[in-house]
Design goal:
The chain has 75 residues and is mostly helical. The chain is built from 2 helices and no strands. Helix 1 packs antiparallel against helix 2. The mean pLDDT is 92. It holds the Pfam family IDEAL.
Length: 75
């Protein structure tokens, strides 16, 4: 014969599932947020390096960094 779960057991399972879902959502949010920060910092560094290449009239570095920035922004 099949054992039926009590209301309390069902409620406990539901709460555990909700907690797991909330933890997963928080993990995704944190991952998204940190990746955004990393991309922003990388973009800022590329702009600084591009400015430096322009100041030094280093066409090769400018072209390389500009391409890298374009690829980063295009993601």
């Amino acid at each position: 014969m099949e054992k039926r779960k009590s209301y309390q057991e069902l409620l406990k399972e539901y709460a555990m599932t909700q907690n797991q879902n909330e933890a997963q959502a928080m993990e995704w949010y944190v991952d998204f947020f940190l990746n955004g920060l990393l991309q922003q910092k990388r973009e800022e560094k590329l702009w600084i390096d591009i400015d430096r290449a322009l100041d030094m009239k280093d066409k090769e570095a400018f072209m390389k960094l500009s391409k890298e920035l374009t690829n980063l922004i295009g993601q």
